Amino acid sequence: MSDPRTTLPEGFLWGASTAAHQTEGANHNSDWWELEHLALEHGIGHIEEPSGDACDSFHRWPEDMDLLAALGFTDYRFSIEWARIEPAPGEISHAAIDHYRRMVEGARARGLRPMVTLNHFTTPRWFSARGSWYAEDAVDSFARFVEAAAPVYADGVEHVCTINEPNMVAALLPVLAQAAAGAPSDVLPEQLASTGLPAPDARLTEVMVRAHHRAVEVVKSHAPHVRTGWSVSVQACQALDGAKATVEAYSRPRQDVFLEAARDDDWLGIQTYTRVVVGPDGLLPVPEDTERTLTGWEFYPQALGEAVRRAAELVPGVPLVVTENGIATDDDTRRVAYTSGALAGLVDAMADGVDVHGYFHWSALDNYEWGSYRPTFGLIAVDRTTFARTPKPSASWLGTAGRDRRWPTA
């Protein structure tokens, strides 16, 4: 009998993740493309540079998949871009549908199981102009897109993620709307884990949950075999003595309600990078002498094990998939150290009965991190001019574990 502390479970998903806007490039019809250029024109927010060509993965996706398969990964999570598929309300691009269908087929041909994310933060400009997720018909609009995208996921796809980090969307959309209107804002995604998430907008929380459940219905109507879920950003929330009520008040609106919305799902995605420490009076700052990543987050790999345990407590019986976990660093040895520590905590949680079905590293590529290319999360480096891909030692280390079906050790 194999040792579960050393051997990957049968069928365990072992992959890396990307997102369309962050890697494809030239996503002109996206709300984020518009925001990037407004921010740069008016000097607002922490957007340092536009996404531009990104990694040119819209054209170079076969090379990305070739590398991941050769490295030993068995799974690849990528998103499809709503702004490309539905450039105007009700106007569907069959060329875009065909493009993403070819990606699914390309993944399968290379021995990679595709996990398709339907929405990874970005939306079409027309959707944003109508009020984005605040619009009265937002859920109907999203459902129409999911319906149109059925040829992408109906065959050859086993896992669909409806919405990436809906809690981040519900927290950040009001902030980003301020930035788009020209109002100063210092809060953008890369700062959030060191300062703590803003409380999500209650109305948006309700909309995101409805949009998810509606998307699940649409997907199941076309492909009953597809296992559906969504991915939630989960910080490891630690309470000092006397702060239990405070940490619950912090955690519940920011992540717990989104985790609990997955009670009837086939799986639940967990995305974890670091922790927050809460005292009786609120969040504590990260100590000055603590190691930080390029995003300013505390180097705390133990967060993953703590996060999956918390999710398992809130939604017992729902299988978990780690859909993102990684570190922004220009020192690849620290990436290996962080990831090995995170996986050690994951293995311990699984040994204690937490039902985890897969692990996807963020990210496959060094890519556009919502305002800057400076935070490098990738297992594979990408030259910004030539787009040459260069796997890092961490990519071989992590990929070999998938080929050997054994948990990696540092």
TrEMBL record:
GO biological process: carbohydrate catabolic process
Signal sequence segment: none
Alphabetical keyword list: Glycosidase, Hydrolase
Active site positions, chain numbering: 324
InterPro entries, per database record: GH, GH_1_N_CS, Glyco_hydro_1, Glyco_hydro_1_AS
Example of a GO cellular component annotation carried by this entry: cytosol
PROSITE patterns cross-referenced by the UniProt entry: GLYCOSYL_HYDROL_F1_1, GLYCOSYL_HYDROL_F1_2
EC number: 3.2.1.21
Superkingdom of this protein's organism: Bacteria
Keyword Hydrolase: yes
Similarity comment: Belongs to the glycosyl hydrolase 1 family.
Entry protein name: beta-glucosidase
